[in-house]
Amino acid sequence: MTSPALAATIDLDAIAHNVGVVRDAARADVLAVVKADAYGHGVLPVARTALAAGAAELGVAHVDEAVALRAGGISAHITAWLHTPATDFGAAIAHDIDIAVSSSRQLAAVVAAAAARSTTATVTVKVDTGLNRSGIAVDEWADFAESLAKAKADGAVSVRAIMCHLARGDEPDHPLNSEQAHRLDVAADDLRRLGAGPEVMHIANSPAALTRPDLARDLVRPGIALYGRTPVPERGDFGLIPAMTLTAQVSLVKKLSAGEGVSYGHTWIAPTDTTIAILPAGYADGVPRLLSGKFAVRINGRSFPGVGRICMDQMVVDLGPDGGGVAEGDRAELFGTGRDGGPTAKDWADTIGTIDYEIVSGIGRRAIREYVGGARG
Ligand SMILES: *Cc1c(COP(=O)(O)O)cnc(C)c1O
C-alpha cells in the first residue's frame, strides 16, 4: 500500500459485518443507503460490498447518484428520493431507477417522462408522515393517490414501494415513531383500495432498524449503521465496526522554544521547550476548524494533542520535549475504530456539538480512499 499524505482507509469487511448486524437486529431485508458517496466512504466499493454481504437493494438521494451506480456496473434495485424540477426522470427511467415521488407534480413529471419513452416508470410513493421534509403532504394525499391509480391503470407507472422517513428515529421509544408507521400503513391501504398497492414498504433508518424491529416492514433503510457508527450511543454500539480510519503522514518535525506561539493567531504558546509535528490535514479536508486545540492524534500507539489553529491544509501536534519518538513519515491516526483507545469520529462530533454523520461524510476528496478487505474491484 502506498503512503498518501492523507488517507481514509475503508474496511470493507466492517461494512459487510455491519450489514449483517442490521439485518439480524431488524429481521428484515436491507436497503443500503449509499447517498453522498456512501457517507464519504466511496460509493462503488461500498455498494458492491453491501450487496455481496446480503443487502437486497440500494438507496440514494439524487437520480445522478443512482445513474453513477449503474455506470459502475451495479444492477441491483436502486431507489432515488430527492428531486428538483430539473431532475432528469428520463435518465432515471432509462437506467431502471426506482423514482420515489414526493408530490403530484413529481408524479406528473415521471408520467410525462415515461410517455416520452413509451415505457413504464417504476415509482416509490414517499409519504410525509410527520417529518415535514420530503414526501407527499397530508393535504395533497387524496389527489395524489387518485393520480397514481390513474397512472398505474394507464401503464405509465408501476408502484414498487411506499416509504416514509422518521423524525425521531433516534429516540426509539418516542410515540411519533409508531404514529408515523401507522400513518404509512393507512396510506398503503388507501393505495390498495385504489388498485395501486405497493409491493413493499419501508420506514426504518439506522436507529429504528437497530432498536424497533416492530417498525421494520419488508425492508429497512440503514445508512450510518452500515458505516459502523451507532446512531443511538446510549443503547450501545450493537457490535457495529467503524469502517473509516483517517490517517495523515507526518510531514515535518521541528523544535520549538518555550514561549513561541503556534499557527495563526498564536492561540497556543509552548509552555516549555518542545517538539511539534505538522500533519497535512485541515479544514478543507473536513477536519473542523472548531476542533482547534480540542483533539488528539495517535502516532505509533501514543496520543499527542493538537495545538494551535487548524488551517485549511495542515494542523500542528505537540510531541513533547523528547519528541515522542516520532519521525517525519510516520502515520498519525486522526480517527478510527476507537477499539484500541484511539480517537473516533464521534469524539470529534461530541467536541464540536455535531453528529459523526457530518464528520465522516465531510471528509474531503484529498483524503485518498484506500480499501481493505471485502469485495473490491
Ligand atoms: C439518509 C437517509 C436514510 C439513512 O439514515 P441513517 O440515519 O443514516 O440510517 C434513510 N432514509 C432516508 C430517506 C434518508 O434520507
From TrEMBL:
Substrate binds at R133, M312. GO terms for molecular function: alanine racemase activity. It catalyses: L-alanine = D-alanine. Signal peptide: none annotated. It is an enzyme of class 5 (isomerase). Keywords: Isomerase, Pyridoxal phosphate. The active site is at K35 (proton acceptor), Y264 (proton acceptor). SUPFAM superfamilies: Alanine racemase C-terminal domain-like, PLP-binding barrel. Pathway: Amino-acid biosynthesis; D-alanine biosynthesis; D-alanine from L-alanine: step 1/1. The modification N6-(pyridoxal phosphate)lysine is found at K35. Its cofactor is pyridoxal 5'-phosphate. Residues 243-372 form the Alanine racemase C-terminal domain. Its EC number is 5.1.1.1. Catalyzes the interconversion of L-alanine and D-alanine. May also act on other amino acids. Belongs to the alanine racemase family. PANTHER family: ALANINE RACEMASE, ALANINE RACEMASE, CATABOLIC-RELATED. This is Alanine racemase. The lineage of its organism: Bacteria, Bacillati, Actinomycetota, Actinomycetes, Mycobacteriales.
